[in-house]
Amino acid sequence: MALGLALTSVLRKEVRASRDPLARLAEVTEPINALSETSAVVFAALQISFLQEGCPVEVQAALAKYFVGLQNVSDDLYPAFEALVKRAPKAFLKATQDAAFSRVRLPNVRWLIAALHSASSNPANASEISSEAGEWLCRHSLAAEAGMYRNTGRDAAKEAAELVRLRAGLESRLSAQSGPEREFVRSRLKGESREGLAQLHLYALELLAGKALEGAVPALVGWAYADALNSDVHGPDKQFRQLVRFNAVDWLRTREAVRTACEPFLAPDASATARRAVVTMLGATGDPDDAARARAIFETLDRDRSSFSWPADPTYSQVDPCDPSTQSPPNMDKIVTANAGIDVGVLSDPTELLELIIIRSRVVGVTLFA
Fold it and tell me: Which residue of 38, 50, 115, 368 could cross-link 82, Cys pair, CB 3.0 to 4.6 Å?
């Protein structure tokens, strides 16, 4: 308890000096680590911070984030942790936001999400949590790198060319925005340059789960537009659809709110970005009429795009390798030769998806007949 009091005092001084208390925590707790009591001390400090009058939220959030990042935290502490979240969710919402942008793994970060869900049983807390989650969804990035997979083994020239392509596409979408769209971005979205935005969006969707979504539709539309403008390869698009589609609280009202919110994005001067946002929103409701409308809009957007067809592959197995009566295919020599010359770097490069699929299609046949 004494160490917890001292730790809280040090962090409050950091805030008064306009410094980041989280940056100081690791240094202050280093001597405690040798005692194997770090989690107990940090949790004591966290409890004390809520008992002290006027303790800054920054201190409470820093302690909460640091605590969930510790190893071997006893599950026995969770009920007390949850009680603190129910008492003052604001600090834990900030800790969750900071955790999303963390560059290190936090082993117990799920404590934050689970406890905030539990705190939502109080209508006042639920409103605060939903509001904060909506604000997170309206964060967006104009970094073209968000749309690119990173691979340390990837050819540097190929990665640079991909980045140039993505930047050109983003510039084209920005220049095509209508006046109302620019105003929408200016007034409703907030720029965010830190890495980890996709994780923050995922946390926001998780915190909205199980709640009424009608009031969150503006934030959901904001996310859909930002995603259409500059998609993140790690963005939670599946979770977005699941949240809206499986809404068991106010699905009908949410669906009507979605339809209403989409109308401005279907104006004659609306850009393709706005229409893609509409496709995302209508496609998420799960309503057959909305799905049909989304498909019609999508087809007009991709009308001039050439349809995809698989390239001819002479190394593809001409027989079904899963049929017990199958004999070795006549092109087996070509398949073996092609597999012998595989570039193993392709196997770990997610951007070489087509080549990867072709390689995998040969594996079963080679395994059975080579």
Answer: 115
The single-letter DSSP state of residue 191 is E
Flag whether 306 is in a domain. Answer: no
Q: What is the pTM of this model?
A: 0.81
Residue type, 63: L
CA-CA distance, 363 to 328, in Å (whole number)? 13
The three-point CA angle 87-212-198 to 5° equals 80
255 token code pair: 């669906």
One domain, residues 213 and 362: no
Indicate the length of the chain as a whole number.
Answer: 370
Q: Give the number of domains in the chain.
A: 3
Report the distance separating Cα 25 and Cα 33, nearest Å.
Answer: 12
| In 26-178, beta strands by DSSP E | 139-140
Query: 291 and 281 in contact (C-beta within 8 Å)?
Result: no
Where is 237: in which H helix or E strand? helix 237-245
